[in-house]
Amino acid sequence: MFSNTVKINSTIISQLRLFVIPGFLALSTTLISCTSTSDNTNSATDTKADPAATKTITFKTKVLRIGYQSSGDLVRVRGVLEKRLQPLGLKVEWSQFAQGPQLMEAMNVGKIDIGSVGETPPIFAQAAGAKIIYLAGRRLGPNSGKGSAIAVPKGSPIKTLAQIKGQKVVFQKGSASHYFIIKALEEVNLKYSDIKVLSMPNVEARGAFIQGTIPVWVTGDPHLALVEKLYGARVLRDATNIGTPGGYYIGTREFTKENPELVRIILEEIDKNGQWAEANRKEVAKLVAPVLKIDLPIQEIISSRATYRLRGITPKLIQSQQSVADLFYKEKILPKKIDIKEALLTPQEYAAITPETLISEK
Questions:
Q1: What's the rounded Cα separation, in Å, for the pair 262 and 135?
Q2: Per-residue confidence (pLDDT) for residue 215, from 0 to 100
Q3: pTM of the predicted model, to two decimals?
């Protein structure tokens, strides 16, 4: 283990393995000029900072490993982390996963440092013993939930959500879709046991759905938009107003504890990227469409209903996340009750890693 020292502006201050699979991830951010010393310590000054007000930070990594899902990651596409970290001498490595559960298992086995997932994967990861920390939440917006849905093929005889009783329903266990389907079933007085669950990642399920071998699919963008527009899939219910706390950026406890200033820089840059994205959704579509090999009009739909900005971890948000965990325990999907607070930092530690743009949201 070695350490890097950086000067920046002070104002920038194995029961559940069924549900998850290995992978890999981490992030960082701050544009700085770097000089090496003989003791393997790197010093640098933030070129965006006021030279009169600097602060020394210490971090214990030279490679920041980042995981992302098959749905893509705008932070990766735009290279914003690399732009701020390369002058510091830090390398960013990216690795792709089918969905959130696979990404969280990679974190569980120590192959990644930070990643973005829905509300459900960190609950299963914590229950499996992963030493994780909630770093920041995803901000919800007016279009939140429109990019996830319970869908049926174009010619399906199923017309209403209540009619999925007794049907085979496909989704990735331990993913956000898992929570979504339980909440949706409650609305039509059905139980989780009233459906036949088959766990399958979206990347595998899409082809089967298109071929008509999956009667009901719980999925999200970009897969949802593709089957809607190209194959006439019908939505029985989207995830609008489903009562979700939304997604999170999650980090390992060790990485977060050893690199608080670096985590702050990471979150700051991600949120800055999100602010740009929500003001330039058509530009986002132009950037992402060729990466995901999706026609631009379809990608514009996906981008129009995506959320990109972050919010700080608050007691209210954690209370909402605890209710999700309690629901899985109530449904006997989790074998034990978990306490979300065990995956949190202290208020002082959150103050150290949370940029002002995230703190401002109540």
A1: 12
A2: 97
A3: 0.83
